[in-house]
């Protein structure tokens, strides 16, 4: 790791001001993405602004048909929250399958979606549930937020403060874990909104990051059941291919994980 | 059984310090004035070093020196050696290219060091290394065996035409031909043995100190064999003289073979400590470990097994290409030859065997012994062949094996080994019973109804441990003898120190070795201290690898104990006025048999050291040493059976059951043995399902972190069912065979045979990742 200056602001405004004032700053939340890349010297921010202890960024609220998870809430707190389990159990389930106990104890929902790793779990939930990403500047719809791998709509210094999930009629997540990293080799989040809209979002599969899968959405809209996907064929075009899985294999997993997500949906 | 004696499940003495974080590893050692080394490593798999500009690095804060390969050459530091000479079948010696500790001219794998920066702090050394500018002329690379042996392949070393180190053979070619021509059936199989990265929990490290006034070096290093390190460093590398070099291997966090070898980093640390006049520490980071620790396995093999009409094996022909990486590591040449092809008879009566092995240079990290070293490759090949034969013949795989088992001992195989003892039917029977083989068809049917593909797989392995009779290995090309040493020191108060040439880096020697002594004297194990890992404390010894510490290391202790006991009995007899032959050892006392006259061990010891009343002419003191040279290899064997379910939709394998029945001869501490088997099995399962080192075509290591190199975790493995069927090894005093590698040797074939049974497609390579299994299911369906 290169030398860096560590800041610990206590409010959102102070964090944003520190970012504006200091050259080459980086927000630090759980640090489970940022610290490893700093240790291997692939990132070298000269100022690290720790937002992980800002009280206004931590907490979960369920009210008025919306589940709000503040940005610096850890995975562990999310998976063990009664509010989450009662309002959108699929999110608790997704979080419980994420990484390992150490990662869950530190990693945050804000860090996960700001980073937008193509194999991360949370982006799938955020997009499938049609969530809203709230920042210190504005509200961004999930549809406008994810812009391809490791890229988002966030502007320089813009801080995610919370993610607002509309409660769904049904939602489910199924993940096939990457044999080495335990990220999603392919994970699929399916959701049926209260208005009857259906979304199916795959992570880990596509070269361009988290993606909605039209064929699956169409079939599920017609008939919300795992069997409805039996005849669906997913094209391997544009899917990732590496030593852990061919594009064809991932295409298969998109379908199989979607089926299992539907089966687990509640 | 005595409470602390042989056979007791004594908790490991060493675990208290390991579990409470009180272990002392090389990186924990700090000395006054210590500096840090950071290596500048090649980002290219094959390149000419045209120039190295150190000027900017030298100006960086805290940088004390930047040393290059050129200076190593100028200082006449020797090239790395390979300690086992293998001859090709035409009689010519193996063709080795030079391996300098830092490359002055040509780099041949990604991660090879070209220079080292010595800094006041770790970070300053690393900053300095980033400022070293190396001018490379990139050359085409051969990143795997096929690329290296292809016509027109890039040539790695001028000495080795076609990148072939040797073309070695064993057995009788013509006899195999003749037997094959008479065969009723032939089964041919091609397979790969996947390349692995050892991944010891503690990365390699070295701390070198030079004392100018005494012209003396001290090296703390992560070694499985500190004396061998000292010998090689002094005899071949021109760095220090043997009596002016102390090598200390303190607590070492796992080796699995990878810490047998002397690596460039230790050499450079020693040399640099003298050059800069300050102690130099180097600790590998995880990326360096992936790139530069000696890797394991990596074979391509084609084999044919011939059978008569009754399914008795007539002959075996094997043709293997073994990858050595870019340089010949210390014992690399022995691994795919004498440690591999000599085990190709397995548990079977195979009258004719012929094997040819071609060693190949590639632009990858050097490959050497890794848990099992050659024996897993042999076992995997044989056990897949015989399973394939059973499927081809549509006969029960267990019965085909049984039909071909060797049942009388000693048995001379056609490939050097003379098996001394074993009972292969016993372990097979026990395994079949434990897994309820008879009930398998019903279980398979039930699983099918639940939508799962159920399979069962066998592996009947044999291996050779207790390396090895020095004369025998000498005749096969080894540059060292493979005996072991021990010294037993009884202190004046009756406590005991045992100095052993074996080295514990996870095996629990501090417990098991003490149990052996406790058992003989009838004293508590905590009265005994095991001393190892320091060339200044311990007499020359050969170290720990190849599951040799029980069979060879303990045998040396037993020999030394016999001498100690003989002398102690003499003293006791003298003082008790009895005949020496009437003295028996019981519960820590020397007793006149049939009487109540006795002397506690402490009194005998004190008498030995006061010297006031010893038999005439006896030297004072109670301390004896011994060297034990084994009479033969030992031959652990066993049967592993595993039952799996494969999820056809995803290709994911899960274990239903895993039974391991081993014959290790005498068990000193069954709990530690079980731990060794568990670890071995997990590594074997890792090889079968998860682990694979992958280089891309340009020679970049794709799996250079845990994000891509899949290590087995607790959730990947089942709860093992272990059993032992025992035949005592006749070759050593306690009848020990060795248990350290069996799991890694036997597990892979059991797992793959189970998966291929489940999916009904036999063409599947390791690791059987879900992706590969799914594809195999698809192509099986097509
Ligand atoms: C061993 C391991 C296993 C893992 N397994 C999984 C897995 O299975 N699934 C998975 O999804 N992830 C996995 N991860 C990644 C983990 O979820 C990370 O924690 C997550 O991606 C980043 O969250 P963080 O809070 O740690 O962010 P940090 O590392 O602190 O930050 C990541 C990036 O986001 C930015 N950032 C953080 N918070 C905000 C904010 N509120 N507003 C704007 N920008 C912000 C930071 O500046 C930085 O650029 C794993 C990580 C590790 C180390």
Topology:
The complex is a heterodimer of chains A (266) and B (782).
Chain A (H helix, E strand, L loop, with lengths): L4 E3 L4 H10 L3 E4 L5 H6 L7 E4 L9 E4 L2 E5 L4 H5 L2 H6 L1 H8 L4 H6 L2 H7 L6 H7 L3 E4 L3 E3 H4 L14 E7 L1 E10 L6 E10 L4 E6 L7 E2 L1 H9 L24 H18 L2
Parallel strand pairs in A: 1-3, 2-3
Antiparallel strand pairs in A: 4-5, 5-8, 6-7, 6-8, 9-10, 10-11, 11-12
Chain B lengths: L14 H5 L15 E7 L5 E7 L1 H4 L4 E6 H6 L31 E2 L5 E7 L2 H9 L2 E6 L6 H5 L14 E8 L1 H9 L3 E9 L11 E7 L4 E6 L4 H10 L9 E4 L15 H13 L3 E4 L2 H7 L6 E9 L5 E13 L26 E10 L13 H19 L3 H8 L6 E2 L5 E2 L4 H12 L4 H10 L3 E10 L7 H6 L8 E7 L5 E5 L8 H13 L6 E4 L17 H28 L6 E4 L2 E4 L5 E3 H10 L12 E6 L8 E11 L4 E12 L6 H21 L30 E4 L17 H18 L10 H12 L1
Parallel strand pairs in B: 1-12, 10-11, 14-15, 20-21, 27-28
Antiparallel strand pairs in B: 1-5, 2-4, 2-6, 3-5, 7-15, 8-13, 9-10, 9-12, 13-14, 16-17, 18-26, 19-20, 19-25, 22-23, 23-24, 26-27
Bound molecules: flavin-adenine dinucleotide (FAD).
Flavin-adenine dinucleotide binds next to strand 2, helix 2, helix 6 and helix 7 of chain A.
Description of the structure:
The complex is a heterodimer of chains A (266) and B (782). Chain A has 266 residues and is an alpha+beta fold. Chain A has two domains: 5-50, Uridine Diphospho-n-acetylenolpyruvylglucosamine Reductase, domain 2 (2-Layer Sandwich), CATH 3.30.43; 58-264, Uridine Diphospho-n-acetylenolpyruvylglucosamine Reductase, domain 3. Helix content of chain A is 32%, strand content 23%. Chain A has eleven helices and twelve strands. Chain A has helices at 12-21, 34-39, 75-79, 82-87, 89-96, 101-106, 109-115, 122-128, 142-145, 214-222, 247-264; strands at residues 5-7, 25-28, 47-50, 60-63, 66-70, 132-135, 139-141, 160-166, 168-177, 184-193, 198-203, 211-212. Chain A has a five-stranded antiparallel beta sheet with strand order 4-5-8-6-7. Chain A has a four-stranded antiparallel beta sheet with strand order 9-10-11-12, with helices on both faces. In chain A, strands 1-3-2 form a three-stranded parallel beta sheet, with helices on one face. In chain A, strand 4 (60-63) and strand 5 form a beta hairpin. The longest helix of chain A has 18 residues, at 247-264. The mean pLDDT of chain A is 97. With 782 residues, chain B is an alpha+beta fold. Chain B has three domains: 31-139 and 202-253 and 259-292, Alpha-Beta Complex (Aldehyde Oxidoreductase, domain 3), CATH 3.90.1170; 299-467 and 632-781, Aldehyde Oxidoreductase, domain 4, CATH 3.30.365.10; 483-628, 2-Layer Sandwich (Aldehyde Oxidoreductase, domain 4). Chain B contains 20 helices and 28 strands. In chain B, a hairpin with a 4-residue loop joins strand 9 and strand 10 (216-221). The longest helix of chain B is centred in the last third of the chain and has 28 residues, at 549-576. The interface between A and B is medium-sized, with 19 and 24 residues.
